Amino acid sequence: MHVIMQMLWRRRGSVLQKDRRVMCDPYFTKIITSKWSAFSEAKDKLHFDWGTNIASYDKHWVGLSINLQTSNVTIFDSFITANPTEIHVDAHMTPILKSIPYILEQYVGFTDYLIKEGERTYALNRFQGIYHNNRGGDCGPCAAKFMEMHSNGDGKEEMSRITDKVVDKFREQYAMDCYEEFVGDFQVANEAGMK
User: Fold this and answer.
1) What is the rounded CA–CA span in Å between residue 42 and residue 50?
2) CA neighbours closer than 13 Å in the CB half-sphere of residue 4
3) Which of 54, 94, 168, 193 is the most exposed place for a label (fewest CB within 10 A)?
């Protein structure tokens, strides 16, 4: 998944930067989740020490589109049964929704003029009606494809047209693209060898 996300960033990075979007590494969300108890009890949330501890991956991948201008997080999930209810989603997302405004302000200097003093938080919506993968094991590539489509301006209609056959094809295509991008390209291979 790291390779796929790097490839997508290299290909779509300029579009993402223009729209002020970012593809977050799952380590980032795991750090937030693992520190949630301490953060929620901290008096000075803006200067909270997030440390350098990086937790291991979780078993399920989703795409998160964080819109800095509207303070909204959209979830692109191809395997809803992994988190079937709003309670499950809230358990995973509350730490992110309530922590991210402070992290952005502390480390990036980003402040939204709409944020009032007091508790800062982001809203959440789960993108409904998109492809659902019943066979499992494809959530990572599906999350990457949803994020790629979203950054390309595609919406629910296009994402709902994905089928298991289409997933098989883009999994294969991602594998070939990643190989070409990082191994088959002599410049990338040479740059990696020089470091």
Assistant:
1) 11
2) 20
3) 193
Give the H/E segment covering residue 124. Answer: strand 123-126
CB atoms within 10 A of CB 4: 22
Alpha-carbon distances, residue 119 vs 42, 43, 71, 100 (angstroms):
12, 11, 13, 12
Is 55:34 a contact under the CB 8 Å cutoff?
Answer: yes
In angstroms, how far is CA 134 from the centroid of its own chain? 21
Residues contacting 22, CB < 8 A, separation 6+: 16, 66
Question: In this structure, are residues 115 and 104 in contact, taking their beta carbons and an 8 Å threshold?
Answer: no
CB-side exposure of 154: number of CA atoms within 13 Å?
Answer: 15
Could you give the CA distance from residue 193 to residue 105 in angstroms, rounded to a whole number?
Answer: 37
Question: What is the per-residue pLDDT across 103-161, written as a single tens digit (0 to 9) for each?
Answer: 887 877 766 544 555 567 788 998 889 999 888 778 889 999 999 999 889 999 999 99
Query: Over the stretch 31-86, which tens digit does the pLDDT of each residue have?
Result: 788 888 888 898 888 878 776 543 344 567 888 888 877 888 999 998 877 667 88
Report how far residue 154's alpha carbon sits from residue 146's, in angstroms, rounded to the nearest whole number: 9
Q: What does the block give as tokens for 96?
A: 């992110």
Give which of 88, 70, 71 is closest to 79, Cα–Cα.
Answer: 88
